[in-house]
Amino acid sequence: MSVEAGQFMNAVEAIGLRKVYKAGKKTVCALDSIDIAVAKGRLFSFLGRNGAGKTTFVKIASTLLLPTSGSVRILDHDVVNETARVREDIALVPQDVRPYYHLTPRETAHSYLRIRGLAREEAASRTQWVLDEMGLSEYADVPCLQLSGGLQQRTMVAMVLATLAPVMFLDEPTLGMDPMARRNVWKIIEEIRSRGSTVFLTTHYLDEAERLSEELAIISRGKILFRGSVRELKVIVGADYRAIMNRNVPRELLSGFDTIVEDGGRLLVLTTREGALSLADAASRAGYEISVGPVTLEEAFIRLVGSSEIDEA
Amino acid sequence: MKLRLQLRAVGTFLMINGIIALRRQTIVLVSISLAPFTFIYFLYLVSPRAELPFGVVGAIVFTTVFTGSMLLNDSAYLRLERHLQAIYVASPVMAVSYAAGMALSELIFILPPLVVLFVVLGFVVHITPAILLSMLCIVILTWIMASSLGFMVSSFFKQMREIWPIASLIFSVISIVPPIFYPITAIPANYRWIAYFAPTTYSALLGDSVVGIVHVSAFIQTLYVGGLVGATLMFIGIASVFTRWREK
Ligand SMILES: Nc1ncnc2c1ncn2[C@@H]1O[C@H](COP(=O)(O)OP(=O)(O)OP(=O)(O)O)[C@@H](O)[C@H]1O
Ligand SMILES: [Mg+2]
After folding, report:
1. Which of A127, A209, A221, B234 lies most in the core, judged by the most C-beta atoms within 10 Å?
2. What sign results for the dihedral spanned by CA atoms A151, B18, A63, A10?
3. Which atom from ligand 1 is nearest to the alpha carbon of A219?
4. What is the pTM (predicted TM-score) of this model?
5. Residue range B36-43: average pLDDT?
6. Which pLDDT band, with edges at 50, 70 and 90, does A100 fall under?
């Protein structure tokens, strides 16, 4: 097998990226010396709480916004100095995007593919493919104005994914979609990745990130808290199992467990497999409800981001 | 080829924002035509018949300038409310292709009332092919000027709420205040110089002299041509420097 030139190049590479917004007299540091590298062909998830800086990063990397300092390179081209070159390689689903209301999903996707340089027949067949994959065939010729919010969102995702651009930025692409529709998106994402595209994803659905990403970064208040795989995150959090219990369980039941997190009115006990099983045993003997399982990305996230915010405070 | 891609983008924006939109919301035509025809009607009621040609030429200029106002609103709406412009920015489409396609799509909307106005013009003055051609040139230059202004101003807004008052102020100043619906001599001589600052004044003056309702020397007419061409080039220049395609 021959080694393709540039095979090991990063698709997205940010070095020392900073963004300071000026709003009147106030300034907001949305990104504070961010370093990120996403290898070509990978799916990378960028996670963080509301206002953490995800969209700001996506906007800079997709040539929508100028950085204050630092650099981002897409497939080895600088987003500021080689903007036109970068734009040939990228496609973006912006956060909160909505379609042209008088166009149908088919017209929406087809016109965008034409704009991106596809021949008419190629654009038509790819449009049909993406509409089928996204479960939009039934609505293909209905004006978007008559579609529900989730169907409109599907239309936008279909329009952009159909480009098969080498580097895709998806800023909360599955927001407002039903569980089946989200799975359709996952399937297409896997498909376009198998064709060689790199996907940069932001999402608040951590099951989605866990399912799709090989690598992720967690950002909090403009700073990277964690970078690595889901497994590595769980190692850092120091637990691979968790038990969920009601908040009013007696404290003596929990003695010997150090990592107990408030999780929306319940208690999350992070521990080892053995620890979780023995706790389950004790709890059920004492007549308390308990649910035990492997730690999810969401729980690890709550633990990591939650404790970093306590440290700061 | 790169140029082909950009031309195709222009054609596609013309299609989706103009032709398809017009087909699906034909009612817009009525609203667009209302203002100029109302002006002509009132002019017809209140002034001597001799003033009517000024009204028709004015209505042609007014309708053309209106494309700038529509472009301002449409592009702000697509950028701020739909977040759609971001998809085109993060793609090989150039700002000028987007602006040109959108501007052409607005032209589609004024085409029907414009045709009617030209027919009316044919009734009130004698039109030769040369006059028709000159009038079309005036329309095209005015459209380019208004579109450049509209697209640039649109790119400055950060939210939809700011748009309506400012957009209507700008376009009222350049489409109603200048001597578009009446001869420039109707403005008191002391204040007439102000009118020469409005770019649309040249469209109207040139239009009036081309159709022969105002008689000026060849030299003055050349000045009007220079004024219109100069204003158009100036607006293109300003727009290409100041339009925000990427946020700061
Ligand atoms: N145009 C702007 N002007 C001023 N401040 C801004 C602007 N855009 C974003 N910010 C601020 O920058 C920070 C990061 O915002 P950003 O939109 O990147 O967050 P996010 O991680 O995408 O959040 P969410 O999950 O809610 O989408 C926030 O504090 C936000 O208030
Ligand atoms: Mg965001």
Report:
1. A127
2. positive
3. 21
4. 0.91
5. 78
6. very high
- For residue B73, being part of any structural domain is answered with yes
**Count of domains for chain A:** 2
Chain A hits for B25, Cβ within 8 Å = 102
Residue A72 in contact with partner chain B when CB distance is under 8 A: no
Q: Report the alpha-carbon angle A134-A135-A139, nearest 5.
A: 115
Same domain assignment for residues A153 and A269:
no
A66, part of any domain: no
Residues A151 and A290 in one domain: no
Q: How far apart are CA A271 and CA A277, in angstroms?
A: 10
For residue B27, the enclosing domain spans 2-242
What's chain A's length in residues?
A: 313
Q: Can you tell me which atom of ligand 1 is nearest the CA of A95?
A: 27
A95 CB within 8 Å of a chain B CB: yes
Q: State the CATH number of the domain containing residue A166.
A: 3.40.50.300
Distance CA B34, CA B53 (A): 18
Chain A contact for B19 (CB, 8 A cutoff)? no
Report the side by side order of strands in the sheet with A26-39.
A26-39, A10-23, A69-74, A77-78
User: Residues lining ligand 1, judged by CB closer than 6 Å?
Assistant: A 21, 23, 28, 30, 48, 50-56, 95
Contact indicator for A131, A105 with CB cutoff of 8 Å: yes
Q: How far is B10 from chain A (nearest CA, A)?
A: 8
CATH number, domain with residue A250? 3.30.70.980
- The predicted complex's ipTM stands at 0.90
B248 lies in some domain: no
Q: What is the pLDDT of residue B1?
A: 55
How much is the pLDDT for A312?
63
Residue A131 domain boundaries: 41-59+81-233
